[in-house]
Amino acid sequence: MIPPETYLGFHVLAILPPIAVLAVVTYLRPDTQWGRTPAIGLGIILALAVVYTTPWDNLLIEVGVWGYGDGVTFAHIWAAPIGEYLFFVLQPILTALWLFNLDIPTHGDLRLSARARLAGVAAGVAVSAVGIAMLAAGPSMLYLGAILAWAGPILAIQWGFGWTHLVRAWKAVVVGISVPTLYLWVADWYAISHGLWIISETYTTGIAPFGLPLEEAVFFLVTNVFVVQGLVLYLWLVDQWPTVAADVRAALPPALAELMPNDPALSGTDDRDVAAECE
């Protein structure tokens, strides 16, 4: 393969081809998780990825945690190049398309005990606490600590909402995370080895199995965890919402029950279900 010379070239050679293949497979296979509901879920994930990652990413670039080779980037917004923002969008699409080809369980009650929710939130907070402790440990822990401190709030929300369902759907979660993560590890190693981006030795631990910095490996693992867990939980929410909504309506006075929204996005009906009914 011809080494890419720019960030955009990296996307063209390493990220867009698997997205194109997965998009075709997902569209053609009749038993994939695709339609209006998964598309809405992916749209939500993309919006959150851009909003939540942008300030964190730009601040680390400004500090000097990583940089780019000469001529690799051509335009920047804030401190990050255009290619970086494209990564915020393309990585979730890649991971989501892979996930949608798996069997994703959506059964199980949405209602969790307060103790279960608290345990999930506490686990996410603990991740942030470890990250903050690393930030205080010295410059070499900055990148790793920043990843964990940044990841904790999202993990706390996801685990607090439905860690029990993630355990129930563990096969889809594990396979959904592991395959795109392994691919992105290889792609990232390739980009680093060809000088597309340069990871600071000052702000990293120096641990780099097979030439891939530990921090980069953790970053791609964590971000794929965000995507897969978020989509699995969203599909579960949509599928189980009608039952919960019906119970809530039954418990409310008629006047209040009529005010409850009946959002089609939470109806549990997918495009393929509608097509099947029409046939």
UniProtKB/TrEMBL annotation:
Looking at the UniProt entry, the stretches that span the membrane are 7-28, 34-52, 85-104, 116-136, 142-161, 173-197, 217-237
Return the InterPro entries for the record.
Answer: Lycopene_cyclase_dom
| Primary localisation category | membrane
Q: In which pathway does it act?
A: Carotenoid biosynthesis
Instruction: Give the way it sits in the membrane.
Output: Multi-pass membrane protein
Location in the cell: Membrane
One GO cellular component term: membrane
Top-rank taxon of the source lineage equals Archaea
Q: What is this protein called?
A: Lycopene beta-cyclase
Q: Which organism is it from?
A: Natronomonas pharaonis (strain ATCC 35678 / DSM 2160 / CIP 103997 / JCM 8858 / NBRC 14720 / NCIMB 2260 / Gabara)
Lineage summary: Archaea, Methanobacteriati, Methanobacteriota, Stenosarchaea group, Halobacteria
Record carries keyword Plastid: no
Q: Which GO terms describe its molecular function?
A: intramolecular lyase activity; lycopene beta cyclase activity
Please cite one Gene Ontology biological process associated with this protein.
carotenoid biosynthetic process
Q: What EC number(s) does its UniProt record assign?
A: 5.5.1.19
Q: Which UniProt keywords apply?
A: Carotenoid biosynthesis, Isomerase, Membrane, Transmembrane, Transmembrane helix
| The keyword Ribonucleoprotein appears for this protein | no
